[in-house]
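Hello Y.,

Per our agreement to keep a running log of every chain we model this quarter, I'm adding this entry. I've kept the format consistent with earlier entries: sequence first, then predicted structure.
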Amino acid sequence: MSTQEGGPEARTWLRVQVLLKEAKTERAQGRYRGAVAKCQEALELAPDSLEVLETLGDIHVGAGHFSAAMESYRKVLQRDPSRPGVEEKLARASLSQLGFQRQMDYGQRLLDRGAQADLKKASQIATSLSILFPGFGQLLNRHYWKALCMAAAHLCLILLGFHVVMDAVRQGQAEHRVEIRSAPRSPYQRQPTMTGGLSTAVQELKRQGRLWQIGVLGGLDMGLYAWAILDAGLCALRREEDTFV
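Predicted structure for the entry above:
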């Protein structure tokens, strides 16, 4: 390149040298983005400058952008395969890129393990809540309408079961009172009474042939529990997966 004083080529050459000096100063101070910008400006003025390309590669190495550095060094070697030190710089950048990639892969594996642990924990919490009461796990997953429907269905089944039991007990007590009134008894004989409690309720349900009603309601409630538990666990997994993605 001609450096005749005052000529356009000389002014361009001087401007490139100034930009290179500024880029190296920026690099030395750790301002890699500014250094890259200076080199790119210099390349617009002198696209064939090997010095600028090599300096750009050095800046990319300092910034940890090893792929970009390798690209710059390869461009230098394509134009001047014998340029001193560039092959060694390319080899070092390649090794650094390999080590960096391994570190990234290892970090990603750690993140994946942490994500899997979080997914498992979220699913366990939602499942445990649904075991306590159908719909609680859905509340954790923010499926509010589903939680409301499950809780309402569970309460309705409980109330229906309670109504069946109480109705059987009341009917048994009424029949018992009728039997007492109609049966002859001695004035000194103690009047029999109908004892309460769970055993009495079960006996009345058996006697009246209504145990099947309790069985149906219990089966429906168990099915609701199973659905709530399974749904809570799966929805928690999907929700956490969407969060990580």
